Inverse folding.
């Protein structure tokens, strides 16, 4: 293999590995999607779309994070002997509590409101 | 000549009035956000759950 090709392949391998090791690679990220008012926290413990027409990468991110949250909630439910539904509620309250002012949360009636 | 002066004054006044109009209104929300959660578990378990959930949301990927 020519040295140039080898260097190029090494660089590509290094680059790709770094990306993969850095964790999930998403075009959108939670912080910016929330700051843009596209997504918000729900009392049931999961992320919701404030804007139905949010971009596809944001919607995919929401699905991904919600799946991960559900897995964590299930783990906590097992560890503490609490029902999943109650753990989810605590999740919702905590997430809403932690939401900074200006970002969206869903109220008890299912409406999106700015904190 | 005098008409020009009045026109100028009128324009200046208009400019000042426009500048005084607030473009951003900052208002407190009408009422507090209402969420009624009935979490139905024993207090000692709730404390454990809260602690775990707190830790869970320290993770930037999930929050």
């Amino acid at each position: 293999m020519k040295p140039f090709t080898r260097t190029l392949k090494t660089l590509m391998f290094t680059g790709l590995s770094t990306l993969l090791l850095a964790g999930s690679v998403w075009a959108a990220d939670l912080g910016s999607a929330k700051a843009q008012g596209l997504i918000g926290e729900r009392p049931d413990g999961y992320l919701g779309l404030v804007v139905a027409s949010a971009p596809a990468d944001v919607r995919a991110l929401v699905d991904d994070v919600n799946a991960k949250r559900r897995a964590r909630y299930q783990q906590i439910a097992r560890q503490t002997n609490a029902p999943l539904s109650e753990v989810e509620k605590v999740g919702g309250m905590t997430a809403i509590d932690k939401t900074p002012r200006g970002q969206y949360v869903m109220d008890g009636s299912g409406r999106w409101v700015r904190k | 000549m005098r008409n020009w002066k009045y026109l100028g004054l009128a324009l200046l006044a208009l400019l000042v009035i426009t500048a005084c109009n607030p473009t951003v209104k900052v208002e407190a929300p009408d009422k507090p956000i209402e969420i009624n959660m009935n979490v139905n578990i024993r207090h000692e378990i709730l404390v454990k759950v809260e602690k775990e959930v707190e830790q869970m949301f320290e993770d930037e990927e999930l929050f």
User: Anything to note?
Assistant: Chain A touches chain B through 33 residues (CB under 8 Å).
